[in-house]
From TrEMBL:
The lineage of its organism: Eukaryota, Metazoa, Cnidaria, Anthozoa, Hexacorallia. Residues 24-73 form the Apple domain. It comes from Desmophyllum pertusum. It holds the Pfam family PAN_1. Keywords: Signal. This is Apple domain-containing protein.
Length: 216
């Protein structure tokens, strides 16, 4: 039996009776919201400590190392729709280069494929355009390739507002640590009025690969 490497557990509060319920989400991790870390912790102890803390809304549980992270923040988030090709169309997803069979439109979160740039291509980028309106982006979620050990370990962002030039998002963002775990990256500050977002890999494991979703 395979072991789930990580687990994001969401806590929902029912205001009528102040009762909390748990919703485990396999292979997901929320970063940038950790307020407390515990080592050698079980599922029961980790979720119990979250229930005791009014600021806790979710926990990250790493099953191999038994590390528990207590998170503040709000989930679930409202996706812009890269995962759904009826919302973000293939033509809105482009890249500087791509291997055959790894085109940009394949880089959708939870998809069976991924985007992979041509090896040794200088400054590869993965781009999402919004031609019909502007969007606000508060979170980015990333995965690696689903069938091989390739993923980004860090990346940078550029973005365009209306018809202006590309602007740099100042922070380098930590990427993934395996193929399939979804890493949620909060953007602080959030990006507003975006017409184009460009993902620019800084480092990778094996090779560069990406599956992506954006959140309002």
């Amino acid at each position: 039996m395979s072991v789930v490497p990580s687990l994001l557990v969401l806590l929902f509060i029912h205001t009528a009776d102040l009762c909390r319920t748990l919703k485990p989400v396999k292979n997901h991790v929320l970063i940038g919201h950790v307020i407390k870390t515990m080592q050698e912790s079980s599922f029961e102890i980790c979720t119990y400590h979250c229930e005791l803390d009014d600021k806790c809304f979710s926990v990250n549980i790493y099953t191999k190392t038994r590390k528990c992270e207590i998170n503040y923040g709000t989930l679930p988030l409202e996706a812009l729709g890269i995962e759904d090709d009826n919302k973000i169309f293939d033509g809105q997803l482009t890249s500087s280069s791509a291997h055959v069979g790894y085109e940009a439109w394949r880089g959708r979160l939870h998809g069976q494929g991924s985007w992979k740039p041509v090896k040794n291509y200088l400054s590869p980028s993965y781009n999402v355009s919004f031609p019909y309106s502007t969007v606000n982006i508060t979170y980015i979620a990333t995965q690696g390739a689903p069938t091989e050990d390739c993923w980004m370990t860090s990346f940078k962002l550029q973005y365009r507002i209306q018809d202006g030039s590309l602007k740099d998002y100042l922070q380098t963002i930590a990427g993934n640590t395996d193929r399939n775990t979804v890493i949620y990256h909060p953007l602080k500050p959030a990006l507003t009025g975006v017409k184009l977002l460009s993902i620019r890999p800084s480092s990778s494991h094996g090779c560069i690969a990406l599956r992506l979703e954006l959140y309002k």
